[in-house]
Amino acid sequence: MAEPTSVAAATALQTHHEVSQFLFQQSNLLDGKQWQAWIDLFADDGLYWMPPGPEYTTWDGVPSIFIEDRDLMSVRMKRVTHPNAWSQQAEWGTSHVVSNVIVEGTDPASGDLLVRSRFHLLEVRRDDVRHFAGTYQHRLRRVDGALKIVLQRVDMVNGQAAFEYVLQIWV
Amino acid sequence: MPSQPLLDVRSLVEPDRVHRRAYSDPEIFDLEIKHIFEKTWIYAGHETQVPNPGDYWQFQIGRQPMVMVRGNGDAVHVLYNRCPHRGVQVCGSRHGSGGDALTCPYHAWRFHYDGSLESVPLEKGYRETRFDRANPDFHMKRAARVQRYRGFVFASLDPKGPDLVEWLGDARMAFDDICDRSPVGRVEVVPNCFRVVQRSNWKFFMENQLDAVHPSVTHMSTGYAAADVERKLKRETGSQPLHYHYLSAFATSFDQWDQLETAGYPYGHTLLGGYMGLRPTDADTLEHERVLAAAYGEAKKDEILGRNIHHVLIYPSISVQSPLQQLRAIRPISHDRTMSEIWHFRLVGAPEAIYRRSLWYYNLVNSPSTMINADDLENWQRGQFGLNSDGGDWVSFHRDYGRDRDANGELHSTNGCSELPMRAQFRAWLKYLTETE
Questions:
Q1: Is B375 on the interface with A (CB under 8 A)?
Q2: Residues in chain B within 8 Å Cβ distance of A77
Q3: What pLDDT is recorded for position B1?
């Protein structure tokens, strides 16, 4: 097996591994319904954003499917864990697969890592199966040694089709 | 053809209760499509969806695939989205531009924006045949009637019947309210349409919008969750963003909801009055008030902002929430499936901050990640589940029955929680289904 031939290549490999593990862990937390731990992956000013279509370049002043800071994430978490969240009485679960992880570079201004990956989500709710798939774009910042999400952009390829029911939780 | 046994819809509707078959019987659904949706005025869209000549947007009227097309100048046409040659769908995207002429992708028959024939290839081949370019049989068929009220376009597939304004009656206040909040009296659509399918009859949607008992039950979880975070923000920052109130208000007590008003108009349009606490004294609202006062004068500004509207339903196709510039159109698919198309609007000339409020409501309450409709859709699906069963025949609309005030065909109640809107809608429903020429 080829050994990394330079310090730069070794660093790149290590970063790619760390970022991949971070993304896999994020999907594990979602599938495990560990909502607070999932929210804690976000930086204090972190945002989760799902635009209505690929042509959107900002959430500011335009519609979004999701645009949530940690406080709004907290509302969503408190809703789904409330005993009278009726739609949560139906048995449901998800399985995320994240792949095609590409570390695209580093933002020269902030030092944030820019990462692109693909996801496939299978959701079961009662007897119904839904599939969602698309691209994640993560902007990751190192805070006290750990990676934190500054921005997670989710472009779902089927986000423009009519939704059978809605999305109760983050994709 | 063998004659079908005549279904007596009259036996399904009593003044205070309705038989479950109104929701669960595909045969009733067929009658609704024929005698309500493909007959009365149905919302096509807003004229600003199609700003330039040739722009189109597809939609359904009952089971008919229609397309709204901007003509030259101010004209807006509504056509069956079908080529008269071989029946092929002409406009293929949900929305787009037809270019110089709407062109069939199969054999390149071309149509003017009003549906009339522009050209066919090899026209010489039609010499001495019954083909006649002036004959409407060779045009894209037009909806029988198209009318607009303040930019909102409606179409009817029936050449007869009341004009749009007469049909809207007092319920047209929904459009006056939304437009008058602009200093120039106009709104523009924000060109994004969220679409969500509910697994339930379309009437669940229409009834739910004006059902003031359900919010604090259905949406309790979101109401409490939002109130909790709202309090935290107030503690930490000294203020709470208005959009949290959009969610926490759903936990308002029954007593408060009951202080609102309801009304039922002819043709089934219905109103829930109530202001949702949307006239606060923050800087953004005061600026909006200043802009409106400059445009209309103080008295008219107070009249506009003093209107008491929570939701208006234009039966059977739309729900308008004018104070927040939201509009939802429903397109029934089958007796137990319904598509909703969700829009919001910008008040032309009003401060940007006022638009941001509509946007928050659109994102939090009406987008596919809604923390509100998630539980509505769940409850309606469970409603359909129960009404499909033989576990009981009747749906109860008894709350405050007998206390509706009937003034020249308009029903009024001073109880926000009255089931008046449902009774009024079924009164119209029965009329549509029994007055079938």
A1: yes
A2: 225
A3: 44
At A118, phi and psi to the nearest 5? -115, 150
Cα separation, B246 vs B418, in Å, equals 23
Compute CA distances B205 → A27, B197, B210, B343, whole Å.
Answer: 35, 11, 9, 16
Q: For chain A, say whether B355 makes contact (Cβ under 8 Å).
A: yes
Summarize pLDDT for B193-232 with one digit per residue, the tens.
Answer: 999 999 999 999 999 999 999 999 999 999 999 999 999 9
pLDDT at A5 over 70: no
C-alpha–C-alpha distance, residues B106 and B26, integer Å: 34
H/E stretch holding B207 reads: helix B202-208
Mapped to the 3 state alphabet, what secondary structure does B376-418 carry?
HHHHHHHHHHHHCCCCCCEEECCCCCCCCEEECCEEEECCCCC
Whether B218 and A163 lie within 8 Å, measured CB to CB: no
The reported pLDDT for the residue numbered B2 is: 47
For A126-170, write each residue's pLDDT tens digit.
999 999 999 999 999 999 999 999 999 999 999 989 999 999 999
Put simply, the answer to whether B378 touches A74 (Cβ < 8 Å) is no
Place of tokens 């809207």: B168
Q: Given A64, A75, A86, which is nearest B378 (Cβ)?
A: A86
The whole-number average pLDDT for the span A20-32 is 98
> Is B339 in the A-facing interface, judged by CB distances under 8 Å?
yes
Is B85:B91 a contact under the CB 8 Å cutoff?
no
Asked if residue B374 lies in contact with residue B198, where contact means CB atoms within 8 angstroms, the answer is: no
Average pLDDT over residues B94-121: 97
ipTM above 0.85, yes or no: yes
Q: Which two tokens stand for residue B156?
A: 């009817």
DSSP3 helix / strand / coil % (chain B, rounded to 5): 40, 25, 40
Nearest to A130 by CA among A80, A166, A88, A89: A166
Report the alpha-carbon distance of residue B96 to residue B77 in Å, rounded: 15
| Percentage of chain A modeled with pLDDT above 70 | 97
Q: Work out whether the CA dihedral A1, A25, A63, B60 comes out positive or negative.
A: positive
Q: Which residues, including other chains, have CB under 8 Å from residue A38's CB and lie 6 or more apart?
A: A26, A29, A30, A170
Direct distance between the N- and C-terminal alpha carbons of chain A, in angstroms, rounded to an integer: 37
| A125 reaches B (C-beta below 8 A) | no
- Cα(B73)–Cα(B376) distance, integer angstroms: 42
Mean pLDDT score, B404-411: 90
First to last CA, chain B: 21
Q: Is B228 on the interface with A (CB under 8 A)?
A: yes
